[in-house]
Amino acid sequence: MRLFDFGAFFIYCGFVGLLALFYKILPGEDVHGTLMRDKTRLNYAVSFFVYINSFNSNKLLALGGNSGNSIYDFMIGRELNPHIGSFDIKFFTELRPGLIGWLFINYCLAAKQFINLGYITKSMVLVQFLQSWYVVDALWYEKALLTTMDITTDGFGFMLAFGCYSWVPFNYTLQARYLVDFPRTISWLEFGIILFVNFLGYYIFRSSNLQKNEFRENPTSKRSKRKQ
Predict the structure, then answer these.
(1) Is 213 left (phi over 0), alpha (psi -120 to 50) or beta?
(2) Burial of 30 (0-12, 13-18, 19+ CB in 10 A)
(3) What subcellular compartments does it reside in (predicted)?
(4) Do 176 and 109 meet the contact criterion of CB atoms below 8 Å apart?
(5) pTM, whole model, 2 decimals?
(6) What digits encode the pLDDT tens for the residues 128-151?
(7) Nearest CA to 50 among 92, 96, 97?
């Protein structure tokens, strides 16, 4: 087995390119970002490029990625929000390639299990449903990303690029891959318990993140203030 496959590489590049095209041409809400250190608002509508490009004038640099150590700055990210014209590279990278790629690979693995067994196990159904729910939820609340440290504070470097383009889609799919090689059947009781625990955790996760997002956007709102 080869360690590198040019065919797979170009297919993946084409997939990312297609997502970038959809990112630009599909209609959607125009969301203004968080007020940055230079008092401008980013209007939101890879590693080597953004690092080298960060040395151009009038670039807003990340505080943590401007140490003067080239290796460290390359890893952490020197520029805060690199752009190609109006295309925000970091905002696009944060959710689109990794999460959508995660789903594509997951669905392929479910298809592989069906080919092997002639059916899909309940454990695979759970993995597919719960992970799909997480991804769709993240994309649905995508604008909440604009108030997170990833956008407002952290630079865009190799660490973030590797995490979003490689780590997420090719590691978060290991559960589904395991079930292809080692299919496991669970009872309906186990199915229900796992589903309940997941949605309990999801409620805590989503409600707390929406609360944090609202506070960052408007810390003086009634919901942001603690009850007296």
Answers:
(1) alpha
(2) exposed
(3) Membrane
(4) yes
(5) 0.77
(6) 999 999 999 988 888 777 777 777
(7) 92
Cα 79 from Cα 52, distance rounded (Å): 9
Please check whether residue 158 is in contact with residue 227, taking contact to mean a CB–CB distance below 8 angstroms.
Answer: no
Residue type for position 35: L
Helices (H), 69-187: 70-76, 89-95, 101-117, 122-140, 149-152, 158-162, 168-171, 174-181
Q: Tell me the C-alpha to C-alpha distance, in Å, between residue 15 and each of 24, 101, 163, 188, 191.
A: 15, 8, 17, 37, 34
What's the CA gap between 170 and 154, in Å, rounded?
23
Angle between helices 101-117 and 174-181 (to 10 degrees): 10
Q: What is the 3-state secondary structure (H, E, C) of 139-161?
A: HHCHHHHHHCHHHHCCCCCHHHH
Q: Mind listing the pLDDT tens digit for each residue in 72-119?
A: 888 878 777 787 777 878 888 888 888 999 999 999 999 999 999 999
Residue 198 structure tokens = 């997941």
